[in-house]
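Ligand: coenzyme A. Inputs:
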Amino acid sequence: MDTCSPRIAVYPGTFDPLTNGHVSLVRRGLKIFDKVIVAIAASTTKNPMFSIPERIDMAKEVFQDAPDVTVESFDGLLVDYVHRHGVAVILRGLRAISDFEYEFQMALMNRRLKREIETVFLMTEYKWMYLSSTIIKEAAKNGGDINGLAPDCVLSKVYARVAELKNGKNCRG
Ligand code: COA
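Predicted complex:
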């Protein structure tokens, strides 16, 4: 990597929805990298609660105070997207030992696909170790209190979507 060019990292994920754990990781990433690209995966085996444009809008709203954060979606292989942007680093968070095996596998596969791209891991902040997007959605669907687990603008959209789902609306239409 050229020492004069900006250090950019791509932080990929499904972000359905963005949690405080993700936000913390991006903000901590900015202490190491000049820019962080939040890359929202379009094709995923998960059945997302929010559409890609909705997830992009949420992330943009959350990081509107951070000019060095950009938000995009990507399709296909992560390494191809990263390479197209001329970026050399994938940023990932490690929450617990259970994440390690999957992350190790993915980092090695990505390395095999594009040797010049490195994966950098940051330990997730202790208070977000147990958090996942699914756990937030599950709690909200079952009437649990999710306040404090995601940014307020995200929480309001989760509550609204849960209410829509309860009313039987097709909200991702
Ligand atoms: N704080 C809180 N929660 C966190 C977190 C953190 N710091 N880091 C991750 N999580 C949560 C996520 O919300 C996610 O929750 P969910 O499973 O309930 O949705 C879970 O932990 C797993 O996160 P992650 O491992 O980042 O999975 P993901 O689905 O968000 O992203 C991709 C996976 C998109 C990065 C990966 O599938 C990918 O790169 N896909 C493109 C195709 C490709 O190139 N594949 C690899 C090579 S074959």
